[in-house]
Each structure stands twice: as structure tokens, then as C-alpha cells.
Amino acid sequence: MRMDRIPTKSDLTAAEFSALREVSTGFMSRTIPKDRRTRLVELGLIQEVMGGLMATPAGRIVARM
Asked: What is the reported pTM?
């Protein structure tokens, strides 16, 4: 499910938002559950890089909300 706007905190479940906040602090391993990771990638809030996860610029904005 790709959105045509930057998602907001209200578009995420509490668990998804918590995972996004965790990833937004910097590069991390893939420790968040696969379903949350997949949804956040689909929404363009995080990306998988070099075997780990990083927040996208949009993800960092949403995590601060």
C-alpha cells in the first residue's frame, strides 16, 4: 500500500509508530517484526540498506510528530 502523500502518525498503529521511532535514531539491525518492517518500507518511511534499516527523510519527519 503506497500512499501519495507522506503518512502521518495517525496512519500508523502504535506498534508501527514505536518501530519507526526506534529506527529513526540511526542505523539498526532488522530486529523489528517483519510485518511492521514491511509496512513501513511500503509507506516509504524506512529503507533496508546494507543488511539493516534506516529511516528515510519522510520517516524522520513522521517520527518527530
From this structure: 0.83
Tally of domains within the chain = 1
Residue holding cell 535514531? 25
pLDDT tens digits, one per residue of 35-64:
999 999 999 999 988 888 999 999 998 998
For 33, phi and psi rounded to 5 degrees? Answer: -55, 145
Residue 4 in any domain: the answer is no
Separation of alpha carbons 28 and 39, rounded Å: 17
Q: Using CA atoms, how far apart are residues 54 and 57, in angstroms rounded to an integer?
A: 10
Assess if residue 42 is contained within a domain: yes
Range of the structural domain that residue 53 is part of: 9-63
